[in-house]
Recover the amino acids of this structure.
């Protein structure tokens, strides 16, 4: 899926556009997928495909998922809209 194939919608009345697809990060870290490089590749591939909406929470893998997401998007923060619950 190329970047031009992604569809976006308004996030309520914020003026922010988010992709119709959201990358869930619940399976990153811990016993789910402890390979941080692999998780980072998944996150960056999603961003490259036009996904800018990431679902994360501090309870996913006891917070490790958010650490992984933070490290992966460090240089691309302006490209994503993390949804933190």
């Amino acid at each position: 899926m190329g970047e031009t194939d992604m569809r976006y919608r308004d996030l309520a009345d914020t003026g922010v556009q988010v992709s119709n697809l959201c990358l869930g990060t619940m399976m990153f870290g811990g016993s789910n997928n402890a390979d941080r490089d692999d998780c980072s590749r998944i996150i960056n591939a999603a961003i490259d495909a036009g996904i800018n909406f990431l679902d994360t929470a501090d309870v996913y893998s006891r917070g490790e998922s958010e650490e992984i997401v933070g490290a992966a998007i460090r240089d691309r923060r302006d490209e994503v809209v993390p949804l933190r619950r």
User: Anything to note?
Assistant: DSSP finds two helices and five strands in the chain. The longest helix spans residues 36-48.
